[in-house]
Write a structure and sequence with these properties.
The protein is mainly β and 356 residues long. It has a six-stranded antiparallel β-sheet with strand order 1-8-4-5-6-3, with no helix packed on it. The chain has a six-stranded mixed β-sheet with strand order 9-12-16-17-14-15, with no helix packed on it. Strands 18-19-20-26-22 form a five-stranded antiparallel β-sheet, with no helix packed on it. It is elongated and about 155 Å long. 13% of the residues lie in helices and 37% in strands. Strand 18 and strand 19 form a beta hairpin. It has four domains: 27 residues; 92 residues, Thrombin, subunit H (Beta Barrel); 88 residues, no CATH class; 91 residues, Immunoglobulin-like, CATH 2.60.40.3940.
């Protein structure tokens, strides 16, 4: 090569270096991990569904890309596993398919995630059995109380044992209801599990409108509603009765506790005990007047009726015959006297009353 050609070639090479540097910087930015990582201070509640974040511009977030969006302070505790819906300027919109932890977070770290890293999520979306903290979205049913429908995303193509969904029922349970999923025919019956382990079709009124429960297919023909109000033969959720409900004695679905049974009483010289079903026992002591009737007011008034009053006279002599006599009985009290062979006497008296 001649000296002249060498000089010309060298000058051209040196002149092209600035553009080469610019092109390489663009390529490096596109390939950089920083293009798919970011932070955000958007205040967002952890949960499934659409989520919006304000992020940095110029990132390489593309629709369909999978991201892990985690709490900066506790990334292994609070996080969402999301797929990018759109990204423009500083606006990032994602669809959260699975979460761990909870709460409203205002400091996030965002990073790209390989789909394989969402193993538990894919199993859940496919309706298969999964473990851990990954949660499936809640789907509100359609249809009627005897023929519910469910439209999960993605859709299923066949009814298979161990498929699992979270449902919010749009109507109260009717008699022997079915659940058609993804528009498939021959829908399975909704069932409960009995205490002996067998399954039974749901009956009318087994859950109210708005009831939320996981649903698991135990076979192609039976879908187990995993959380139901308990019955005499089937396990389920039991609400505890209040003391007032226990005393009324009419509720058929709530459970009693020792505290609710014993919750309405007063022990003392004069006291009462209210029993389930409404019966009330009351007691007290008083001293009879030697000249007139003695009035007694019950510790609590009987709501409906006084059934019985008995009295026991306390006196020191075994040779005196004395009689307790009540009068003017009402739901709030009574009067009494203590008579002996010598007439009225100021005897101590223990009394006991029953009513409801």
């Amino acid at each position: 090569m001649s000296a002249e050609l060498f000089d010309t070639t060298t000058d051209a090479f040196i002149g092209a270096l600035p553009q080469f540097e610019t092109d390489m910087n663009v390529l490096a930015a596109a390939m950089s991990l920083n293009a798919t990582t970011d932070t955000s201070v958007s205040s967002v509640l952890i949960g499934t569904g659409a989520k919006s974040f304000t992020v940095s511009p110029g990132k390489s977030f593309w629709p369909g890309m999978w991201l892990v969006i985690a709490d900066t302070a506790a990334p292994t505790t609070n996080a969402m596993f999301c797929q990018v819906t759109s990204y423009s300027g500083t606006a990032l919109v994602v669809n959260s398919y699975a979460v761990q932890g909870g709460g409203t977070i205002a400091s996030w770290q965002i990073s790209q995630s390989a789909p394989a890293a969402l193993g538990g999520l894919y199993a859940a979306l496919a309706g298969a059995t999964f473990t851990g903290d990954v949660q499936t979205p809640d789907y509100t049913t359609g249809g009627t109380g005897t023929a519910f429908t469910l439209t999960p995303t993605p859709a299923i193509t066949a009814y298979t044992a161990n498929q699992k969904f979270n449902a919010i029922f749009n109507a109260a349970c009717g008699a022997a209801p079915t659940l058609a999923i993804s528009g498939l025919g021959s829908p399975p019956n909704l069932v409960r599990q009995l205490l002996d382990g067998s399954y039974q079709n749901l009956a009318s009124g087994d859950f109210p409108s708005g009831w939320q429960s996981p649903i698991k297919l135990v076979s192609a023909s039976q879908a187990l509603v995993m959380k139901l109000p308990a019955t005499a033969t089937g396990s389920g959720v039991v609400e505890l009765a209040t003391t007032a409900e226990v005393l009324a004695g009419t509720d058929t679905v709530r459970a009693c506790t020792p505290a609710s049974i014993a919750g309405s009483k007063s022990f003392g010289t004069a006291g009462y005990y209210k029993l389930p079903g409404g019966l009330i026992l009351q007691w007290g002591s008083s001293t009879a007047s030697g000249s007139a009737d003695t009035a007694v007011t019950f510790p609590v008034a009987f709501p409906t009726q006084l059934l019985s009053i008995t009295g026991q006279i306390i006196q020191n002599s075994s040779n005196i015959f004395a009689v307790f006599t009540s009068k003017g009985e009402s739901v709030s009290g009574f009067s009494f006297n203590a008579m002996s062979t010598g007439g009225r006497n100021a005897y101590p008296v223990l009394w006991f009353a029953i009513g409801y």
